[in-house]
Specification:
Blueprint: H1 2-12, H2 20-49, H3 51-55, E1 59-64, H4 70-78, E2 82-95, E3 101-109, E4 120-122, E5 138-141, H5 143-149, E6 156-159, E7 162-172, E8 185-190, E9 206-213, H6 220-230, E10 237-240, H7 246-284, H8 286-294, H9 299-331, H10 333-339, H11 350-373, H12 380-383, H13 386-389, H14 397-418, H15 421-452, H16 460-470, H17 476-511, E11 515-520, H18 525-533, E12 540-554, E13 557-558, H19 559-563, E14 573-577, E15 585-588, E16 600-604, H20 605-611, E17 618-623, E18 626-636, E19 649-651, E20 662-668, H21 674-684, E21 689-692, H22 693-732, H23 734-746, H24 751-788, H25 797-817, H26 820-824, H27 827-834
Parallel strand pairs: 3-8, 5-7, 14-19, 16-18
Antiparallel strand pairs: 1-9, 1-10, 2-3, 2-6, 2-9, 4-7, 5-8, 6-7, 11-20, 11-21, 12-13, 12-14, 12-17, 12-20, 15-18, 16-19, 17-18
Helix pairs in contact: 1-9, 2-7, 2-9, 2-11, 2-22, 7-11, 7-15, 7-17, 7-22, 9-11, 11-14, 14-15, 15-16, 15-17, 15-24, 16-24, 17-22, 17-24, 17-25, 22-25, 23-27, 24-25
């Protein structure tokens, strides 16, 4: 080892010539992973430190569609130092004349709100301003909502038919993150202003939350246990400061982990550059290696010397990546904090840096060991022969085993760090499959080029380009692997975005309703349907009774212990009752007319299969604080993709007899009729909430677009790494291009012909990389849209063309940068140096 260290130290004193691409590839990949990890940890730290502020208290007792009884409220007050009650619901905000209408997420608060933090208002008034002026209650409105209605401070408007006066614009509410996603801008009013109004009538859809500050020394865990025992069967939902915004936490974890995995794809592209760099380095050092072998150095000593050099360079590249990634996060801490969904303070933590360093070191080792291991096969006499020094083949079996072990360690580390086994394995598996397809395609393109080159002798520029692509030292494999993977990610994102836009733009007008109408009082249902059907453009109005319930148990066992975190079991779900089935049955029988026996329920077939349910199983569903235990009598084929009325659970009418409820309706009408329908609803049915389907989908599409943008940014690092590999391949081939240009000049070729040859080579390779990326991206997009989102796939030709054009442009730019030198070189000098 002492001799190996001396050799390595002597070699490293020669500088980093030839290793800039190695270092750049490693640095970019590590920096991207470190930066994403630091932002993810900052959000998690913000959720932990600001949990009580975001929740609005240290703990929260929630009830669906009812307020706590006097006894329940007394129990909560007895276990709290302070209590604040809020009611959250959707409503329609309209101008006094009904000319402008908008959906709003309405929050009704008592005098104690907010228990923690402060609302930011413009002008800066206190919560007491909600008392209003001249007997008219006040309200705070989100600036987006106020601008849409054309309101300024002091103007009057209506919420659910009740008149309010705008007292201030709501710039920020401290407990916004805990509310989750909403389809309307926020409005805040005093809870007292809604007492006795139809907005809080029995059966209407609202959430009541009691936020509490605890007496000093109170254990949150102990209070949770006591609350679950006290409110068992009452439909109480618990939240506390340790998980104030579970949806934000879950989303952050998943998106952050996925972006780290995309960063790993960038490191895989960098690995191609590392492989090529090490291979070229060993080729350049063949004379040095031969001399060392001739002087008696063993293969183990030489391998150790080269490994020490690579370890030192890997340490340098990883360290530079960590510094660059952490520095970028700190430099943009302000803008990052401004766009985060929760209050965060961006600081550096160790875990993301360790994760990024581990990924970088493992990737460098995996891709460098292959070319390095072949040193042991080379003999001193034949190392001087170029053909022997550059021969191809598999490394020794021991090295292959070591590479396999390191790869398994990389996958295991990704699984452990992300905590998402299936997502990690599917993403890394997709990257591996993409790399394999790209490598096979590169082999096929080189063989095809060799086959076609002799047939293009009458076209010198094309002949030279094909001959260069098919040559033994061709950069085709490095170009297609490096560029193709980054373009594949961008192509997949583009196809998914295009598919979602197509589903909204094309399928929605044919299949989906224009509005969902909520909180229809049953006595008003007939009049509302008749009025809407009399409007021009309305083709259909469907109505059903609607309640909300929480599935708490399956066959007497806690539901989540039986079926895990299925979406049906997360929170409350819409339920209905019916005399006759709305959808075709797939199994079982429907209850007879006027059935009055034990409760029965019909379940959506797809969700029932996912939950592992069968006919005769018993579901316990808590509705308005009452547990209903119903046996499954049938399964139905519910098609949610139509966006019409569909319920996972439909009960027999007797099971819910006497339960206060409202009706749900869907209105089918063309886009041109929507504005007038909204105005009609505001004038004649002000307590009914109209949810525009297109507007709601636009919000979902906007959220998905933000995710796609984040993935595209991460993929751009992969592309940048790929471009660095392209530059490295072009630089490594500069000497070969100079010799090629010199020979063509001697044979009578002009500079224009040589330049066309270089351009054709770049265009062919770029088009090949882009074309393969389009295919891989289309396959990935199809899988996401059809298997995950259950939507239809439409191939976006424009996006595909842009990907191919981008690939060609990238290779042309990289090739041009290193083509000018060979073109300017004198043939005599180049050919003499080759001898």
């Amino acid at each position: 080892m002492r001799l190996a260290l001396r050799i390595a130290r002597a070699e490293l004193r020669g500088g980093l010539n030839g290793f800039r691409i190695f270092l750049l590839c490693l640095m970019l990949g590590v920096a991207a992973i470190a930066a994403v990890g630091e932002v993810r940890e900052a959000i998690k730290a913000g959720l932990a430190s600001e949990g009580a502020v975001m929740l609005g208290g240290q703990a929260e007792f929630g009830f669906s569609y009812r307020r706590a009884s006097a006894e329940e409220r007394r129990w909560i007050s007895d276990h709290a130092a302070r209590v604040s009650e809020i009611v959250d619901l959707r409503s329609m905000a309209t101008t006094e004349d009904g000319g402008e209408t908008a959906l709003t997420q309405l929050k009704a608060v008592d005098g104690g709100w907010p228990l923690l933090g402060a609302a930011m208002l413009d002008p800066p008034v206190g919560v007491e301003a909600l008392a209003g002026v001249d007997g008219t209650p006040g309200a705070f409105l989100d600036p987006v909502l106020a601008d849409r209605l054309g309101l300024k401070v002091g103007d009057r408007f209506k919420l659910g038919g009740e008149t309010f006066v705008l007292m201030a614009r709501l710039m920020r509410e401290p407990d916004a993150a805990s509310a989750g996603m909403s389809f309307g801008a926020r409005s805040v009013v005093a809870l007292a202003a809604l007492e006795g109004t139809p907005l809080l009538a029995p059966g209407t859809l609202y959430e009541t939350k009691y936020r509490v500050l605890l007496p000093e020394g109170t254990s949150v865990a102990a209070l949770q246990s006591a609350a679950r025992a006290r409110f068992k069967g009452a439909g109480m939902k618990w939240a506390d400061e340790t998980r104030a915004a579970p949806s934000v936490e879950r989303f952050t974890d998943r998106l952050g982990s996925f972006l780290v995995l995309v960063g790993l794809a960038g490191l895989a592209v960098g690995g191609v550059g590392i492989f090529a760099t090490v291979q070229a380095w060993i080729t350049r050092k063949s004379a040095t290696i031969a001399t060392l072998r001739a002087l008696g150095a063993s293969g183990a000593t030489i391998r150790a010397a080269f490994l020490i050099q690579l370890a030192a360079l890997t340490l340098l590249g990883v360290s530079a990546g960590l510094v660059f990634g952490a520095g970028a996060v700190l430099a943009f801490a302000g803008p990052i904090a401004a766009v985060m969904p929760v209050p965060v303070e961006v600081t550096l933590t160790a875990r993301p840096l360790i994760e990024a360093a581990l990924y970088g070191a493992l990737t460098a080792a995996i891709f460098a060991l292959w070319p390095l291991a072949k040193l042991s096969e080379l003999r001193a006499a034949t190392l001087y022969r170029e053909s022997e020094a550059n021969r191809r083949g598999l490394p020794p079996r021991g090295t292959l085993v070591l590479i396999a072990v390191l790869t398994a360690a990389l996958v295991l580390a990704a699984v452990l760090f992300s905590g998402l086994v299936m997502l990690t394995l599917s993403t890394l598996g997709g990257v591996a499959v993409a790399l394999a397809l790209l490598a096979l395609a590169a082999m096929g393109i080189r063989k095809l080029a060799r086959h076609l080159a002799p047939r293009t002798c009458r076209r010198p520029a094309l002949h030279a380009a094909l001959a260069a692509i098919g040559a033994r030292r061709s950069e085709a494999t490095a170009v297609i692997l490096a560029l193709g993977l980054g373009l594949s990610v961008l192509s997949a994102v583009a196809q998914v975005q295009s598919g979602l836009r197509g589903a909204i733009a094309e399928e929605l007008p044919r299949e989906a309703p224009a509005f969902f109408l909520l909180d229809i009082p049953p006595p008003e249902r007939a009049a509302l349907v008749a009025r809407l059907m009399g409007q021009e453009g309305v083709s259909r109005v469907d109505t059903v009774p609607m309640l909300r319930g929480i599935v708490t148990e399956i066959n007497g066992t806690e539901a989540r212990k039986v079926a895990g975190e299925h979406w049906v079991l997360r929170g409350d779900r819409g339920v209905t009752f019916a005399e006759t089935p709305r959808e075709p049955l797939t199994a079982g029988q429907w209850w007879p007319q006027d059935y009055a026996g034990p409760p029965l329920v019909s379940v959506s077939a797809k969700e029932g299969e996912e939950l592992g349910l069968k006919l005769g199983d018993r579901l316990t569903v808590n509705i308005l604080g009452r547990d209903i235990i119903a046996s499954i009598s049938s399964f139905r084929n519910v098609d949610f993709s139509t966006m019409g009325i569909g319920f996972v659970l439909t009960f027999d009418p007797a099971a819910l007899a006497g339960a206060p409820h409202t009706d749900l309706a869907t209105v089918y009408a063309p886009p041109a009729a929507e504005a007038e329908l909204l105005r009609l609803m505001a004038r004649e049915f002000p307590t009914v909430t109209a949810v525009p389907v297109r507007e709601a989908l636009a919000r979902v599409s906007e959220a998905l677009g933000a995710i796609a943008t984040a993935v595209s940014v991460a993929a751009s690092v992969t592309l940048l790494t790929g471009f660095a590999v392209l530059l490295g391949a072009a630089a490594a081939g500069e000497e070969a291009r100079a010799r090629e240009a010199a020979l063509l000049k001697v044979l009578g070729g002009t500079r224009g012909l040589i330049l066309r040859s270089f351009a054709l080579r770049a265009a062919i390779l770029g088009a090949a990389a882009g074309g393969i990326a389009v295919g891989v991206g289309a396959l990935a997009g199809w899988a996401v849209l059809t298997l995950v989102m259950e939507s239809s796939f439409r191939f976006d030709l424009l996006a595909a063309g842009l990907v191919i054009a981008g690939g060609m442009a990238a290779v042309l730019i990289a090739g041009t940068l290193f083509a000018l030198g060979p073109l300017a070189a004198r043939p005599a000098r180049v050919l003499r140096s080759a001898e």
